[in-house]
Amino acid sequence: MTEAFDPASHTVVPPRGFDDLSVGETFAMPSRTMTDALFAAFQLASGDNHPIHYDVEYCKRHGHRGLLAHGFQVMIQTCIGAGPLAHAIGDALIGFIEASAKWHGPVHAGDTVYPAVEIIDLERQNTTGVVTVRATVHNQNGDLVMDGEQKYLLRL
User: Fold this and answer.
1) Mean pLDDT across the chain, nearest whole number?
2) Which of 136, 139, 145, 155 is nearest to 15 (CA)?
3) Fewer CB atoms inside 10 A, N or C side of the chain?
4) What is the pLDDT of residue 38?
5) What would the pLDDT profile of 18-27 be if each residue is shown by its tens digit?
6) Among 109, 104, 33, CA closest to 64
7) Quick one: CA dihedral 76, 77, 78, 81, positive or negative?
């Protein structure tokens, strides 16, 4: 006879609390090639209808080799839910509370992006803690195309 399966015990990585995190820890996320389909899905979800995001000929006339990703389309690649940090903090996560970003270069359809987050600050409070991460996105050439900060509120 086999043991009863408990879905609540099925975890991707061992759960960690706020006090188990360390400044300097980096969490890489899966790379992703930014396809035309992803551009179309983002356009549909965002409602952004500027032709630089969906009209190849417009892009070429304006000096781009192809469709240009919206800045937020690049930024969402760093959502912690796309990588191991969200699995590690699991039920301790209360919410995403702040974000900032700076874009350093274009991301075109066909580019592959490599997102990651690094813990840069841990602020313990009475019953909660704030985790600040530096979010980065590099392209297939190793160029930093976006960086910024995000803050997440966790239960202690």
Assistant:
1) 95
2) 155
3) N
4) 94
5) 999 999 999 9
6) 109
7) positive
Q: Which residues, at least 6 apart from 28, have a Cβ–Cβ distance to it below 8 Å?
A: 83, 84, 114, 115, 116
- The Cα–Cα gap between 154 and 119 comes to 14
What's 122's DSSP letter? E
pLDDT bucket at 1, cuts 50 / 70 / 90: low
The token pair at 32 is 């992703």
Listed residue (31, 46, 14) closest to 136, CA to CA: 31
Compute CA distances 10 → 43, 57, 86, 90, whole Å: 35, 48, 15, 12
Which long-range contacts (C-beta less than 8 Å, at least 24 apart) are formed by 95-98? 95/152, 95/153, 96/150, 96/151, 96/152, 97/130, 97/151, 97/152, 97/153, 98/149, 98/150, 98/151
Q: For 148, phi and psi rounded to 5 degrees?
A: 180, -170
> Length of the chain, please?
156
Closest CA to 137 of 110, 100, 112, 155: 112
